[in-house]
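Reopening this ticket.

The earlier resolution said the output was attached, but the attachment link was broken on my side. Pasting everything inline this time so it's all in one place.
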Amino acid sequence: MCRLPPSRRAILSKAALYWRLFRGVVENPRYFTFVLRGGVPDKMARRLAKGEAPPTGTFYPVKLDLRIVYGCNLRCKMCGQWGDTGTYFSYESTKLRRQLDLSVIERVADELVPHGLRYVDLEGGETFLHPQIMDILRGLKSRGLFVKPVTNGTRLDRFAREVVESRIDAIHISLDGDRETNNLVRQADWAYDRTMDGLRALAEERKRAGRRSPLVQINFTMTRHNRHESLRRLCDDLSGQGLADVISVKMSPIWMPQEKGKAYEELMSRHLGIEGGLDSWKGFVEDYSDFEDQAREIASAVKQLKSKGYDFFVDGLPGIDPEDLPRMYTDYEWDLGRSHCPVPYVEPTIEADGNVYPCNLFTDEPVSMGNVNEQPFLDIWFGEKFEAFRSMLRQEGGLLPICNRCCQLTES
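Inline output:
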């Protein structure tokens, strides 16, 4: 039998991949249109950059981030929650046991859908530790929302059929290298195999149901713990198995210098009178100034992997010129030209204890805007505390000292 040359095989593989993507778009056109257009957040950022802050009462969340549990079954080294410098270790046990209840989630969704809520992200901790996870996914989808859980995938095999049957739009699964590297990062020698079991179960259920959704995206976060070699090995491990639609390579982790966290504390004291209790930023303190050479190798690796004939897309974030990637590590002051954060105007976060925050990452109780267990969401959204926070952000030029390597900024 005649064997095709590698270049011909790569072309055929890429053609099959685009055909598969096309089938997914046809199956779920509203979702792909919403994600690819960008839309409201980008428009809001441009409006804020022009000094055109919208009047109170004229803007509503388009996207909602729900941190439904605090608990996690892994201890990933770079995680600001449960990692080597994670801040959840300081939480009291009563708080760590809190879970965002289905009835609260549905009440908030019913409050916001009439005002244009379109998309819900579910996060943790580990989302599939929530005892009501499938009821939550089904309940949100029944309201016509785009739904995407984020997971480490280690419990996915037992939920795969229900996930596909729920008709959620996408699922993001974290893998940070091949077996050896991923397990090193996760600090668990069983993590990689369980995640792969989950991916296989999900692929089998999509095939059984004859569906292309949910879109399966693997998130690979580049850090000093894995580096570009493990990304290459992961892509080779996954190749040809039909387990993923996209591998998203986050080419810069969330990090900040210590002095930026201190500057944030001073600013919050001056503007909002908050003294103490601002600890979440400490989970992301890291010095990557020595990572310039690695950054060049990362950029080169992603460029090469994009051109290979894998049966999944390889996407690198942030979407900047690869030549500029070293600057992400050596120049924290660089904001990638994205000067104003739109998140407090379009994408609030509700934590497992019901507290509402203007930011997905830095969720300390002194910065809570209110609690959905105690009052309607829109009373919080248009309340004095939220307005004071937005005013502070505008006065500070659109970003805070801790913002410049936030994924909301770099991946927008």
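Reporter confirms the inline version is readable. The chain has a mean pLDDT of 93. DSSP finds 17 helices and nine strands in the chain.
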